[in-house]
Amino acid sequence: MQIEVSSISGWMDKWKKLGRKFFFLSIGIFIFIVVVVRFPGMYRPVPSPIRNRRLVPKSCPLRISGQTITPLNNTKHLLVSAFMDQRVKDFDIRIISIFRRDSIQPLHCLFCCVGRSSNTTTPANIKEHSDNFGFPFVTTDVMCQIPQNCNATHVTLLTQPESVKVSEQTWLPIRNKKNNGKEEKRLQFDFTVCISNLFEFNNALQYAQTLEMYRLLGVDRVVIYNTSCGPELDRLLHSYSQEGFVEMVPWPINKHLNPSRGWLFSKYGGDMHYFGQLATLNECIYRSMDRSRYVLLHDIDEIIMPYQHDSLTPLMDMLQQQHPKAGVFLVENHIYPKKPFEESKRGPLPHWRGVPGFNILEHIYKWEPDRAAEYHPYKLIIQPRMVEQTSVHLVLKMFGEQFKIPPELCHIVHAPLSTPTVQPLEKIHVDTRLWDFKDELIPNVNNVLRRAGLLY
User: Could you tell me the fold of the domain covering 184-451?
Assistant: First the structure.
């Protein structure tokens, strides 16, 4: 009798344990059903890009370049960006590139066409830019014609089209397809500034002041091509990028070439002019073509300053009305060296002393060289839809006319780091135009420096 009671007791214990397991398992299943079925937004699997045909059409490649500099197979050349551009007869696509001048060979454009099972090629037309300053590598436009009945989404270049393996090619997406810059009423910005090169600098105070000056003058967007910069400047630009005012474009030119730090090969050496400045300026024009009314091409130590208007908008409205066929406006460069009396971030704003970089508000002493003996370079305000190729100080190819803005109406306040501290006093004139903006500029600069964690 004791054995039977013991056996019954053992079975009861086992059933209790199984009951508890079943109870907890049931609770787990219930929670899963509530979370996944009742509230599906809380859990959503990421769709595969290969299966999502809306993202990747059938004939499009899987090896799409996500880089700003893409080596071209079997060459020494580099591809930057591809844009729809139908302003030049017989061509539809412009690929901005960097080519080695002594090894340019015939190329073919290969297109990815939506809905086609096979891809077709057309001959490429290679156009070197005329300004190379003696360097081995030059900014180059590769012009392509899209085949008939092809809705092209991507393009690449081939050296041997007969033996091509599509799976081994790296493709560039074709940009500016929506309106090709023809409908100005859809443009997102009035003024975009293109800063062609940033490498190794950490002048955060100068950047903050200059970017805030751009904003006060009516600039909507600043595009900066970044090779490298110091930690404080990186924090500042990251803050501007999050806000949306600055667009940072990675520019790892030093991973592909030995970029020059100067503009002339015979003096500075290297593979390409000033970290590929001409390639970035041209890329920025096409990047901005269908979204900005005007593009300003200059450096971070330069401010295009109107002297008879409060901002760039009324200035350009007036000039455009007076010169309706002009698509290029040349702005004279004026140098504002360091103070004749050496100072650095002293005076009423000692809290800026801990921020790397110089104070542009101290640069009020304009150097006036003899105009008959000295060359005054220009920087550019352009309508991007009227420009085909540009250099630093002049446009190489355009579709309209150009106009030189009188310096008393507008000129560049240029405060470079490399100018001598002391100039002959007879050539120095005080110009406090920057101070007209200081009541708004100073608090705005303080705010952005605090937001970036550079001012406490």
Answer: Spore Coat Polysaccharide Biosynthesis Protein SpsA; Chain A (3.90.550)
